[in-house]
């Protein structure tokens, strides 16, 4: 029998960052996410596919959530995302009572991680430079798509 250890937040983020890179390489918005079970098992991972699929609802978090498949509940799970979630994805986290959130970075987009924390979600923001660099590069290269993705200028 092998001992199984729960991955660290940084190890979980590495899965989401690989997904973000896949999205970027395919010409899409580089936001990746992963949903982990209470024991650290990867339940699902995905990346933003709004550009590739023409589907405005396929954000990184929704793709990871869908990849995890239907579950009777989400107690003990952790959603990991390379960028602080928008209201849409924060709503998904609240709706399904996902208790933990790991955010790669919130510099390029402040997102709703603070709102989630106010509503009882255990939030960890890693401020990961690789996540910030990838998103900053995309925002510079494709400013119109970036503004479309975050809901336009404030």
Q: Which structural class do you get from the secondary structure elements?
A: alpha/beta
The total strand number stands at: 5
* Overall geometry: globular
Distance between the termini: 54 Å
Summarize this, please?
The protein has about 150 residues and is of the alpha/beta class. The protein contains seven helices and five strands. α1 packs parallel to α6 and α6 packs across α7.
Helix and strand topology:
Blueprint: H1 9-25, E1 32-36, E2 42-47, H2 50-53, H3 60-68, E3 78-83, H4 87-95, E4 100-105, H5 113-118, E5 122-125, H6 129-141, H7 143-149
Parallel strand pairs: 3-4, 4-5
Antiparallel strand pairs: 1-2, 1-3
Helix pairs in contact: 1-6, 6-7
Description:
- By secondary structure, the protein is an alpha/beta fold.
- It has seven helices and five strands; from the N terminus they run αββααβαβαβαα.
- Helix content is 42%, strand content 18%.
- A five-stranded mixed sheet has the order 2-1-3-4-5.
- The relative contact order is 0.16.
Name the descriptors:
five-stranded mixed β-sheet, 154 residues, 7 helices, 5 strands, alpha/beta, 42% helix
């Amino acid at each position: 029998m092998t001992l199984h250890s729960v991955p660290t937040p940084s190890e979980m983020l590495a899965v989401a960052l690989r997904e973000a890179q896949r999205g970027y390489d395919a010409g899409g918005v580089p936001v990746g996410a992963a949903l982990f079970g209470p024991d650290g098992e990867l339940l699902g991972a995905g990346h933003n596919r709004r550009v590739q699929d023409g589907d405005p609802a396929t954000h990184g978090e929704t793709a990871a959530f869908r990849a995890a498949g239907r579950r009777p509940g989400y107690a003990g799970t952790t959603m990991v995302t390379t960028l602080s979630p928008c209201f849409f994805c924060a709503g998904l986290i609240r709706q399904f009572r996902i208790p933990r959130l790991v955010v790669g970075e919130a510099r390029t987009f402040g997102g709703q991680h603070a709102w989630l924390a106010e509503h009882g979600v255990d939030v960890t923001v890693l401020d990961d430079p690789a996540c910030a660099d990838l998103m900053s590069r995309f925002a510079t290269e494709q400013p119109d798509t970036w503004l479309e993705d975050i809901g336009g200028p404030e």
